[in-house]
Task: structure prediction
Amino acid sequence: MPGPYSQDLRDRVASVIAGGSSARAAAKRFNISESTAVRWAQRLSADGHVEARAMGGDRRSRLSAHRVTVLTLVAHKPDLTLAEIRRALSERHGISVGLGTIWRFLAAHGITLKKKVCTPPSSSVLTWPRPATPSSAVNPRSIRNTLSSWMRRQRQPT
Result:
């Protein structure tokens, strides 16, 4: 991501705009986009300056103040989904956060939420292909046992 324009350029554009020129004329004169000049003019009239704002976002979690609450909730019911955790935090504690916030908080604490498989794996049907051994160029175990609708079984040479 490119950095902000220099403060010198910002000050020159602001002085031209404050001198009575339009933002679009200042943009053309200093070879910057019109939208940038318009934003700087709006900031100049609202804030009184055109200084660059800080880049990047706040990386602190909104849940760090509620760490004990969230970890207790997950410890009591470890199979909650992210949506259920969010709903419980909102209803019980008045904490309103997004699903991504909860996911990043749990990931930072080394907690993964994985649902258990409801049914045991099948013992009569191959559910995952076995890995092929590198001992031969064509290994029958490296060929899938099932055929899709667009495939036909090839005849074996005699």
